[in-house]
Amino acid sequence: MDPRIQRAIVLRAAGEYEKSRTLLWELTETPALKAEALLNIAWSYDNEGLEESAAEYYLAALDADLEGDNEFEARLGLACTWRCLGKYMLAKQEFEAVIRDYPDASEAIPFYALCLHNLGEHEQAMTVMLELVSNHPPTPGIQRYAKALAFYSHNLN
Fold it and tell me: 148 or 55: whose pLDDT is higher?
C-alpha cells in the first residue's frame, strides 16, 4: 500500500477526517491510486456519519475499477450505507449481489438480514440469520464487525 494512503488511514483512525480526505483527494489525480483513494474517502465519510457523501464516493471508487478485497469492501460499504440511509431496496439488491459474488464472505449476511428486517421481511431475515449461525460459526470476517452488529442487535431500525 502506498505510504500516503497509509498516512490518510492513520489520520482517519485519529478522527482527522478532513485532513485524511485532503490527502486522499490529491491522490485521486494519480491513476494508479485513484480507486483506492476514493474508497478511503468513502470510508472517511462513513466513519464520520456522513453517509450521503460516503455513498457517492463508494460509487466513484467502484467506477474507478477497484479489484479484489477493495471491490468487495466498497460494495459491502455501499450496501450498508444505503441501508443506513433508508434506501432499503437498493441495499437489498447490492447485498444479494455481494453474497452471490462473494459466497465465502459471511460478514455480509448479518447486514443483509438487517436490511430484510427493515423491509418488513422478518421471516426471511430470521431464516438468513439462522442459516448463517448454522452454516458459519463466527468467523474473523464477522468478528471484525462485532461492534456494529452488537449496536444493531439493540437498534434494529
Answer: 55
Cβ neighbours, 10 Å, residue 132: 20
* 17-45 mean pLDDT: 96
pLDDT of residue 144: 73
* Helix intervals (H) in 14-145: 17-27, 34-48, 51-63, 68-84, 88-101, 108-118, 122-135, 140-143
Are the C-beta atoms of 72 and 107 separated by less than 8 Å? no
Question: pTM (2 decimals)?
Answer: 0.84
From the CB of residue 5, how many other CB atoms can be counted at a distance below 10 Å? Answer: 18
Spell 92-106 as b/e; 16+ CB within 10 A means b.
bebbeebbeebeebb
Return mean pLDDT, the chain. Answer: 90
What lies within 8 Å, CB to CB, of 88 at 6+ separation is: 82, 115, 118, 119
Contact 31, 64 (CB under 8 A): no
